[in-house]
Prior knowledge:
By secondary structure, the chain is an alpha+beta fold. The protein has 10 helices and 13 strands. It is 30% helix and 26% strand. The strands form 2 sheets. Strands 1-2-4-5-6-3-9-12-11-10-8 form an 11-stranded mixed β-sheet. Belongs to the acyl coenzyme A hydrolase family.
Amino acid sequence: MLSSRLLQVRSAPVLAVRALSLGTTVLQGKAPDMAEGNSHLLVTNVRNRLRETVGASTNWRDHQQAMAERASLSSQLAPSQESLPVRRMKDSYIEVHLPLGTQPELREKYLTYHNSVRFGRILEDLDSLAVLICYSHTKNEALQRSPLSIVTALVDKIDMRKHIIYPDCDIKFTGHVTWVGKTSIEAKMHMSQFHDGAYSPVLDATFVMVARDPENKRAAFVNPLKPEGPEEEKLFQEGEANKKRRVELSTASLLKVAPIAEERKIIHSLFLNTLDSKTVSFRSRVLPPNSVWMEDAKMKGLEICHPQERNIFNRIFGGFLMRKAYELGWANACAYGGCRPNLVAVDDILFQKPVEIGSLLLLSSQVCYTQGSYIQVRVHTEVLDPLTRQHNTTNVFHFTFSSPEEVPAILPRSYGESMLYLDGKRHFDLTMSGQ
């Protein structure tokens, strides 16, 4: 529960707001000329800017027709990356404001019943901003509409630098492209909040987007990126390292290869600690004190995917999926720990398939690893075709929470649960190594 002090309305001074409107304040030590790329705007206008970029409509029926007409834009796609002009990082720089302090009417959408900020809404805003940043990088002034369909492929990492997000203080998002491949783009974003007379950092986020043709069927080339100066070169090299790390993690996935020797020892030790000493049987398992079987730490949900939650490409908005997954994961961690948890990090959110409008979306949350007061939660989403009864995985989410108190140890019983346990431990260890 936030103290009464935090619930008092604290608006940013008018002079500070005016200074921001002139683009004079840049977050995270960015050079002032980084703001040359794009002027900042309000969060509420980001989606409108995206619709203008691709020619989407706010009306459901018109939207379908507009998307069908996008097929004619295929002729405007570049035949190769070399035929596209080189971009700078400053070309895609964007600053976006969420004035929770200076425009109180915006708060209701972002508030929880505890008068804290709904982090799921922040995830939605980050997703929209990442797409807009990538469109700024690929913008062609000669074209009225972009022929590219830019969609979220992966949320590589979101690191929380501060657990408290005040419900009545202005928020600022900044970001720009930091790395590109042939058809993929990495965008880094930072969120800060105005409090006690200054903006202080709240989180850092790294998203990976992919460019596809107007019908979102095949890959499309994006503009190359040229770093300027040692700081930008460092960011670009970090993007290269991130790509290499993702490839290595995919290769070492427990769905593809066996656990390493150290991990096998961990699982066998857990097994031995849960054997019934009286029966000395492989089948007889006993739950140790202050522990919970993994099968008893689940929470599930269902969403009917209505047109209201569509993105500019007539699929379900990725930010909406992240919000729903986060809220289910948070609820699971809350129920497991018996108190309100804080988010520590989000990592490796993989968007495997788009979710079509009209789908039945099944969400399954599982506490898969614990250590001290930390809770690692995995949320798996899949769509169900009610006619064929086929299930297809669309997303996998990984969240790390911290609880005010030490939580019970989570224990697997089956081999499949043991693999979930090890996968959760890998994500937790990776998160903690970056703290």
